């Protein structure tokens, strides 16, 4: 059996725009529904959602027949969490709150087998199709995608050095946390934060590293794409549910 191909990794490496949806509902059924909506990628969150490994496994399985690649965000840059998500078949990870090149290097090493990293070895996990993928241990890293999340002014100041770490495939800018770091909590529309978001993608483009971002605002998403962001989440399952449920209720009770 051949190694499963990571379509998301190869697409962003070629600079192809990838449109995504944030998934925080912790539901395999919800993931299965939106996996067939036409998105290029889905973010399965475990940092700010009550989502744990067995549920993430079921979500990965639910997304298999859809159009979207899955990205899993661990709760932290932790080698045990990273190892477990990789073993159940996650091929792309978004590592939160990476502050320095050393932290980016540790994230990459957690996804690599020795001698290039510290990932623990199992020969029978879902990632290798239960041992059926030929030479999985030798070739796994070729299809694993590591995205690091920049969330503070301090990290932004080192963005080129962080992005240049060998094995980092893309850099995601967290606008909410970044706005708080700039002193504008809850207001990433502030001109200073918007300038920082534009500056970040400009600097990443200069070194040829794909940049990602999230916004529920369609006009803002279009602007981010114009600026050069390569992988853009244009909404979230929670937001879609809440917004449309509110609107329906209002039409009958307003």
Could you explain the architecture of this structure?
- The chain is an alpha/beta fold and 254 residues long.
- It has a single domain, classed as TIM Barrel, CATH 3.20.20.
- 43% of the residues lie in helices and 17% in strands.
- It is built from twelve helices and eight strands.
- It has an eight-stranded parallel barrel, surrounded by eight helices.
- Helix 3 links the parallel strand 2 and strand 3.
- Helix 2 packs parallel to helix 3.
- It is globular, with a radius of gyration of 18 Å.
Strand order of the largest sheet: 1-2-3-4-5-6-7-8
Number of strands: 8
Beta content comes to 15-25%
CATH topology-level name: TIM Barrel
Structural Rg: 18 Å
Order of helices and strands: HEHEHEHEHHEHHEHHEHEH
Domain module count: 1
CATH architecture: Alpha-Beta Barrel
N-to-C span: 57 Å
List the helices and strands and how they pair.
Elements: H1 7-13, E1 18-23, H2 28-35, E2 41-45, H3 53-63, E3 69-73, H4 79-87, E4 92-95, H5 101-110, H6 136-139, E5 145-150, H7 153-157, H8 159-163, E6 168-173, H9 175-181, H10 191-206, E7 211-214, H11 218-227, E8 231-236, H12 237-253
Parallel strand pairs: 1-2, 1-8, 2-3, 3-4, 4-5, 5-6, 6-7, 7-8
Helix pairs in contact: 2-3, 4-5
């Amino acid at each position: 059996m051949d190694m499963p191909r990571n379509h998301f990794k190869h697409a962003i490496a070629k600079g192809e725009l990838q449109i995504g949806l944030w998934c925080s509902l912790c539901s395999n059924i919800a993931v299965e529904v939106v996996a067939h909506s036409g998105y290029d990628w889905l973010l399965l969150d475990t940092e700010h959602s009550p989502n744990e490994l067995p549920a993430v496994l079921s979500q990965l399985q639910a997304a298999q027949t859809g159009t979207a690649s899955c990205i899993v965000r661990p709760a932290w840059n932790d080698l045990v969490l990273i190892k477990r998500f990789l073993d159940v078949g996650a091929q792309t990870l978004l590592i939160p709150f990476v502050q320095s090149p050393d932290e980016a290097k540790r994230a990459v090493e957690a996804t690599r087998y020795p001698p290039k990293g510290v990932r623990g070895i199992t020969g029978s996990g879902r990632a290798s199709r239960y041992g059926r993928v030929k030479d999985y241990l030798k070739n796994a890293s070729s299809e694993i995608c590591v995205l690091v999340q920049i969330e503070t002014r301090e990290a932004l100041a080192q963005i080129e050095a962080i992005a240049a770490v060998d094995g980092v495939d893309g850099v995601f800018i967290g606008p909410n946390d970044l706005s708080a770091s700039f002193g504008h909590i809850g207001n990433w529309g502030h001109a200073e934060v918007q300038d920082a978001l534009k500056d970040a993608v400009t600097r990443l483009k200069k070194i040829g590293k794909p940049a990602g971002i999230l916004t529920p605002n369609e006009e803002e998403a279009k602007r981010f794409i114009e600026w050069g962001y390569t992988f853009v989440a244009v909404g979230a399952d929670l937001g879609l549910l809440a917004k449309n449920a509110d609107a329906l209720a209002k039409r009958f009770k307003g």
